[in-house]
């Protein structure tokens, strides 16, 4: 087996030149030519050097600092851990993986700059990233134009609906979260609901999705409020919801510190109806920030948050428990579903490279789209040409916070 000794320019890739990683070089310059060279080397008492093994370059642009660092930090740690594991095990058919990672701070302009660098300067074969919906949507056109597989870690449905040729994503969508929440509300007899949402990319998108699907679930939206990413007091908006006619429950669509503030203010204004949050708060830091006010909050989330509490016959348990144990041992930090999104993205991408038998971006893209029954932290994934997320609502688990911890709602 031989490996890639050099990398063609991005222009050559766009023109259709294919790199044949892991493939033999028989036929290159002709077998007879190679034999002749070997003979000359033997006469001179020399040994032909094996071509240097090339790293498989995978890019990442993540929000490791800034207001979305609670997303990017566990994602970065997860990718570092997985790359080290891959290389310690011999790489991919003998070739090492090299992660080229940039911190975009969740800023769409920075994300575009780093995406361009990954494409033109770093010559990566695929990219994982987009911690936020805003940064993801900023780079999607660049990867589509360059023909580079991109696996997003953000939540909004617009990332993969409509389907984009080169773009995939690992988290559940905001639309799925709305439907999971509304299904539970109806089961509890709630039909008159208030919505409050952040004005960031994720919050705005989920608010729109919830308003769009509410009627199909028999839900009437009796109040609709928003808050900015820098707001530190949401009591005016929550007071408006408290006074909404017939209010039976409230749904907050948001991420970052905003949902924790909403949760504390929710109790402070005397709201006594149930509060639902989105999967955008699915980390232990939300419970810590919200404090006792988080008691009783429900949200849809991945099974990762309740790994030990899953039944032993749950097919997802070995995956989520294995990742949780490895991550917490390696980092000393509690696991979050956001790191799980990066886990799934990396595992999907590496499996696609192995199946493709190549590091040609087009072959990797095709192999990704052919993913079937991949069990990840988000659930069982099956991609198709019409579905580049590969999950359905059943992949969500409904959780409730009790005694400062996650519990499964049966």
List the helices and strands and how they pair.
Blueprint: H1 10-14, H2 31-43, E1 56-62, H3 69-88, E2 97-103, H4 108-120, E3 126-129, H5 133-146, E4 150-152, E5 167-169, H6 174-187, E6 192-198, H7 201-213, E7 220-227, H8 235-242, E8 249-253, H9 258-268, E9 275-277, H10 284-290, E10 298-301, H11 317-331, H12 337-356, H13 361-369, E11 374-375, E12 380-381, E13 397-402, E14 405-408
Parallel strand pairs: 1-2, 1-3, 3-4, 4-5, 6-7, 6-8, 8-9
Antiparallel strand pairs: 10-13, 11-12, 13-14
Helix pairs in contact: 3-12, 4-5, 6-7, 9-10, 12-13
The whole-angstrom Rg is 24 Å
Strand elements, count: 14
What topology, given as strand order, has the largest sheet? Answer: 2-1-3-4-5
Q: Low-confidence spans: pLDDT under 50, at least 5 residues?
A: 1-52
Distance, first to last CA = 52 Å
Going by CATH, the architecture of the largest domain would be 3-Layer(aba) Sandwich
The percent range for helix content is: 25-40%
| Class per helix and strand makeup | alpha/beta
Helices, by number, come to: 13
The CATH class name of the largest domain reads Alpha Beta
Q: What proportion of the residues form beta strands (DSSP E)? A: 15-25%
Categorize the overall geometry: globular
- How many domains, in number, for the residues? 3
The string of secondary-structure elements, in order, is HHEHEHEHEEHEHEHEHEHEHHHEEEE
What do we call the CATH homologous superfamily of the largest domain?
Response regulator
Largest sheet: 5 strands, parallel
- CATH fold field value of the largest domain: Rossmann fold
Mean pLDDT over all positions: 89
């Amino acid at each position: 087996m031989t490996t890639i000794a050099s990398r063609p320019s991005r222009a050559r890739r766009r023109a259709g030149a294919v790199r044949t990683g892991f493939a033999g070089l028989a036929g290159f310059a002709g077998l007879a030519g190679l034999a002749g060279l070997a003979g000359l080397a033997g006469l001179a008492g020399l040994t032909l050097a094996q071509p240097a093994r090339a790293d498989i370059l995978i890019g990442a642009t993540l929000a490791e600092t800034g207001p979305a660092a609670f997303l990017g930090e566990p994602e970065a740690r997860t990718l570092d851990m997985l790359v080290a594991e891959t290389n310690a095990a011999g790489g991919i058919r003998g070739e090492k993986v090299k992660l080229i990672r940039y911190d975009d701070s969740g800023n769409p302009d920075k994300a575009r700059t780093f995406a361009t660098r990954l494409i033109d300067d770093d010559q990566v074969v695929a990219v994982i990233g987009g911690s936020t919906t805003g940064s993801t949507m900023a780079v999607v056109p660049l990867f589509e134009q360059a023909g580079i597989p991109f696996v997003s870690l953000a939540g909004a449905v617009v990332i993969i609906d409509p389907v984009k040729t080169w773009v995939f994503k690992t988290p559940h969508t905001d639309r799925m979260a709305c439907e999971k929440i509304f299904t539970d509300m109806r089961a509890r007899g709630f039909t008159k609901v208030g919505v409050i949402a952040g004005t960031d990319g994720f919050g705005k998108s989920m608010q729109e999705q919830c308003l769009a699907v509410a009627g199909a679930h028999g839900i009437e939206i009796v109040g609709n409020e928003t808050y900015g990413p820098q707001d530190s007091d949401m009591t005016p908006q929550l007071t408006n919801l408290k006074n909404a006619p017939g209010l039976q429950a409230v749904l907050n669509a948001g991420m970052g510190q905003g949902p924790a503030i909403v949760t504390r203010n929710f109790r402070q204004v005397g709201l006594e109806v149930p509060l639902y949050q989105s999967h955008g708060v699915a980390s232990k830091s939300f419970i810590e920030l919200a404090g006792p006010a988080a008691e009783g909050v429900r949200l849809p989330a991945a099974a990762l948050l309740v790994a030990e509490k899953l039944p032993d016959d749950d097919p997802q348990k070995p995956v989520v428990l294995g990742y949780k144990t490895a991550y917490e041992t390696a980092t000393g930090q509690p696991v979050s579903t956001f790191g799980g999104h990066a886990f799934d993205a990396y595992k999907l991408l590496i499996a696609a490279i192995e199946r493709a038998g190549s590091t040609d971006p087009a072959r990797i893209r095709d192999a990704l789209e052919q993913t079937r029954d991949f069990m990840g932290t988000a659930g069982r994934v099956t991609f198709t040409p019409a579905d580049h997320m590969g999950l359905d609502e059943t992949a969500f688990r409904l959780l409730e916070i009790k005694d400062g911890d996650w519990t499964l709602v049966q």
